[in-house]
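Dear all,

This email documents one entry for the complex benchmark we are building for the journal club exercise. For each entry we list the sequence lines for every component of the assembly. Then comes the predicted three-dimensional structure of the complex as a token string, followed by one or two observations. Please use this as the template for your own entries, and keep the labels exactly as they appear.
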Amino acid sequence: MTSPLEQKKIKIAGPSVVTANRTWDGIVVYRTAAKSWSADLSEAAIVRNSDEAKALLAESVVDDVGAIGPYIAPVQVGEDGKILPGNLREQIRRTGVTIGQPAQV
Amino acid sequence: MYAYDEIDRTLVNERVSEFRDQVKRRLSGELTEDEFKILRLQNGVYLQLHAYMFRVAIPYGTLATNQLRALAHVARKYDRGYGHFTTRQNIQFNWIKLAELPDALADLAEVGIHAMQTSGNNMRNVTSDQWAGVAPGEIEDPRIWSELIRQHTTLHPEFSFLPRKFKIAITASDHDRAAIKIHDIGLRLIKNEKGETGFEVLVGGGLGRTPFIAKTIKHFVHGRDILSYIEAILRVYNQYGRRDNIYKARIKILVHELGIEKFSREVEDEWQHIRNSSLQIDDEVIEDIRSRFTYPAYEKLPHMPDELRQAAADPEFEAWRKNSVAPHKVPGYSIVTISLKPTGGPPGDATAEQMDALADLADKYSFGEIRVGHEQNLALPHVAKRDLPALWKALDKLGLATPNVNLITDIIACPGLDYCSLANARSIPIAQELTRRFANHELANLIGRLHINISGCINACGHHHVGHIGILGVEKNGEEVYQITIGGRADENAALGTLIGPGVKFDEVADVVEDIVEAYLALRERPEELFMDTVKRLGVEPFKERVYATR
């Protein structure tokens, strides 16, 4: 859960994705294998070692208009291939705040 | 209220046009994010976990009802129907779209609100006592001086690219409600022996990763010299402040490393060059600003009207009145604090409907004025005592009459990991659980004044260092862990809390707070001995023992 703003070295311990926020509205997006952004984690390109992660991040950074602040985030990949966020921070980014929002309570 | 002049209106409107163009160029790709980031930050736009966050300034915490309605409008039209009041008299919207931000800013500009310098390495919103101008015993209204400094520092070219952000707070009362000792510059308005207005100037306070309580750099600076003295401090900071290391860039580090004596000599030298310049303030300037603040036409009203006497028979009303209603400088009137800390709710949040309804109540009962305090509550500053029962009923219908001001559930909390990209742990769910644990009003009253502050990371936006009980969320091996401090305070006797021991897990925090409270209730010598008095008398050891004996 260390903030990725403090992410200095790209060293991954397991399956990971590149995530960012879409520029025009700020929503959470993931880099796809088709070199575009998707709001659906299941469409994210999975990388499994540091070289792949570096390459995907380098390719993502180029699209500065589409999304901002790309970084590598851990995920878990189930036996059925389902992709889940790898830590609480990414879980919150994917599913939203863990509290009721005032206007909905 | 302060009435903006044509210069202010032009400045705000021009800023909206400028930012609209910058956003357009960003979305077209003409500006890269690296180029745009500093521009958006200077307009209060952060990127958080789920979306952009938009921070709007409420200078010295004073809002007119049309301004509160405009904030409600922004919450409703551009966000998700609510806003979050912060610890520095700002409001934040958590779900704003960059493409719509210029329109939101334009809507706010119509009522004189803006987001300039609510982020970035510049002079932030100048904050003050939320009871300014109405508190009994106040020396004079500190907002006049806050406004002077606001005008001088807004878009000041020399101070737009400081080593790091810079915050000023002003108080004019003996009891410090503006937390001046945890600011980069704290100003305490005083009078000298000739009866002239001036300031005790404090410098180098701040929390975050390296917390310091501000030190007095000069015991009296005449009001006419306050701009030049502040400017001298800023110049020394601008020259010597660390730009090479973000963690050492705040003025508190410079003051600490140079020592207050050397730092004050540097400031004094600089000040002698500029104090007799155009920065010296003419009385007419102050009087012009003073004349732009309007004060209500108070009536001559009884101290104990019949309405209040009758309502006193209702224990629920009395419970609310006792901790939400404070004396006013004018007989027959009161200051009413409105708790934004409902049981189970996120501290400091208000819905658009609540903001609109509160604006209506302020028009009806408080001469159209609302205040915002650093404790993340609101206040109605001019309520006739005869109107208190009716106001209470109306607030209760809105969910804004929780009788917990200054009690254990009046918690200050940052947005934490639910919203913030810097956070390591959640803050709001901890606060929510604590408000449920201590929801019993009789228990909360029995405990008495006790402030809990929660931060979701070391940046300390929830001011955990100065909470009577401070809770800091950190991350350890992928888990949220919370460090607990006790004995901090943010008032005129400001102090940093002491860590009581190893961090505890998310699920244990409320239990630990209960243990601390139980220890306090058992240890206090008499019911009037407040939590902080017991901590002062006994130190942290008995509390540490109680918390860790079974863990």
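Observations: Strands of chain A lie at 16-22, 28-31, 37-38, 67-77, 83-85. Chain A touches chain B through 28 residues (CB under 8 Å).
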